[in-house]
Each structure stands twice: as structure tokens, then as C-alpha cells.
Design goal:
The structure holds 2 protein chains of 2 kinds. Helix content of chain A is 37%, strand content 20%. In chain A, helix 2 links the parallel strand 2 and strand 3. Chain A is built from 5 helices and 5 strands. Chain A is α/β, with parallel strands linked by helices. Chain B is α/β, with parallel strands linked by helices. Chain B has a 5-stranded parallel sheet with strand order 4-3-2-1-5. The radius of gyration of chain B is 12 Å and the shape is globular. Chain B starts with a strand and ends with a strand. The model of chain B has no long low-confidence stretch (mean pLDDT 96). Classes of the chains: A alpha/beta, B alpha/beta. At the A-B interface, helix 1 and strand 5 of A face helix 4 of B. Chain B: This is Sulfurtransferase complex subunit TusB. Chain B: One of its GO terms (biological process) is tRNA wobble position uridine thiolation. Chain B: GO terms for molecular function: transferase activity. Chain B: InterPro entries: DsrEFH-like, Sulphur_relay_TusB/DsrH.
Chain lengths: 130, 101
């Protein structure tokens, strides 16, 4: 089955991103497809490469990057939510005159249309949030 | 058309479980996860509402029960414990998934 996943909460604040990750992993293990993970609202904070959690804690950002790499996942960060919260890629850095970028490996910044498309093209849209 | 309702709030924090039960039709499923698993315990304020929901199947996510120290003997009757693979199966088996976030 073709799933899409929406994550509305940031890492280490709420269980939503942990639940979404565990669901995604279980779905992939069962042979299902995840056509997109869309990070919305505070969920965009899952896509910064500047986090350094303690070594004995789970690294939520790297965990998404690694799962994305292993399964060729489309990890999409909402552009408007990202601009508000300082999640920046090369294009956004140039467009908005910033002096740095921090998008984590495997993530890309795009628009809300990607969420609508995921809702249409997937068979189930799973929403994780507060 | 069957619906899987997912509830992640404690019934002592928000009314999402009670609200969900107002919508849940016969043949639908309710999965309690995250703090929502407190709604699966017996003898609490929502237990009667859960018991009265005829034709609705109730599930609770095992890892989230374990994380909160809720053992199976504390669960209300008729609650089935599932793991994440079971969560995925519920999403597949039902036609619609409605998240009561």
C-alpha cells in the first residue's frame, strides 16, 4: 500500500515525530511504500543538521536522514514553516540573503502543494502531531 | 467504508477520545497511542463510554503502554494490544484513517 506521512511536531518536544518514524519503519518493513514524508509547522525542525543530541539519546534528525537514504524517501519540509523557523537550504539562503544553510541530508524544502499531492496520490495519509 | 480513528491524547487532557466516539460508526476501529493509551485503562472516567461503543473495536499501542507502565491487567475489557506492525495493518485494513490530533 502507498502511504504518505505528515509530521506536525518538532523533535524532542512531542512524541509525534517518534511515532511517525516508528510507523514509517514498520510500514517499510512490511513491504509498503512511503511516497512522501511532509514536515509541517514545528515539524520542520526535524530537518535541521545543526542538532547534537547526547550520544546516549536517539538522534531524531539523523534517523530520518538514514531511513530516507535506505528507502529513497522523499522528505519534504514546508517552505513557509521553514522560513519562519530558520530551516534553510542553498536556494533559500540565496533568495533570502542568509549567510548559512542547515537543511539535513536527504531533506528538501518545497511548498504545501506537496502535501496536497501526497494526500491525492497516496492511499492513506497518516497525520502525527499534537 | 470503515474508518480507523487514531487518538493520541489522554482523556484527562483533552476530549478527543469522547469526541471520536461520537463519530465512530459501527465497524470502525479506534487505536489509542502516545498519551491516548490512558483511555484504554479500566475503571477510569471514559471506561463506560468505551464499553458502550457497540460495534467499535478498540486497540492500544503496546510500546506506548509499556512506556507508561500500564500492564495488560490494567486494561479495560475488549482492548487489543498491537505493536507498530499492527498499527500499520489497521491503517491498511480500514478504508480511511482519521487522526484526532
Amino acid at each position: 500500500m502507498k502511504f504518505a506521512i505528515q509530521v506536525n511536531e518538532g523533535p524532542y518536544q512531542h512524541q509525534a515525530t517518534d511515532s511517525a518514524y516508528q510507523f514509517a519503519k514498520a510500514a517499510l518493513d512490511a513491504g509498503h511504500e512511503i511516497m512522501r514524508v511532509f514536515f509541517y509547522h514545528d515539524g520542520v525542525n526535524n530537518g535541521t543538521n545543526l542538532t547534537t543530541p547526547p550520544q546516549d539519546d536517539r538522534n531524531i534528525v539523523n534517523r530520518w536522514s538514514e531511513l530516507g537514504k535506505a528507502h529513497d524517501l522523499d522528505l519534504v519540509v514546508c517552505v513557509a514553516a521553514a522560513q519562519r523557523r530558520g530551516i534553510v537550504d542553498e536556494g533559500e539562503m540565496q533568495r533570502n540573503g542568509k549567510d548559512a544553510q542547515n537543511i539535513a541530508d536527504g531533506f528538501r524544502i518545497s511548498g504545501l502543494g506537496q502535501l496536497i499531492e501526497a494526500g491525492i496520490q497516496s492511499e492513506r495519509l497518516m497525520v502525527f502531531g499534537d | 467504508m470503515s474508518t480507523l480513528h487514531t487518538v493520541n491524547k489522554s482523556p484527562f487532557e483533552k476530549n478527543s477520545l469522547a469526541d471520536c466516539l461520537g463519530y465512530a460508526k459501527e465497524g470502525s476501529a479506534v487505536l489509542m497511542y502516545e498519551d491516548g493509551v490512558y483511555g484504554a485503562m479500566k475503571g477510569n472516567a471514559v471506561a463506560e463510554k468505551v464499553a458502550a461503543a457497540s460495534g467499535v473495536k478498540f486497540y492500544a499501542l503496546g510500546p506506548d503502554l509499556k512506556a507508561r507502565g500500564i500492564s495488560e491487567e490494567k486494561l479495560a475489557e475488549g482492548i487489543e494490544v498491537v505493536d507498530y506492525a499492527g498499527f500499520v495493518n489497521l491503517a491498511v485494513e480500514n478504508d480511511i484513517v482519521s487522526a484526532w490530533v
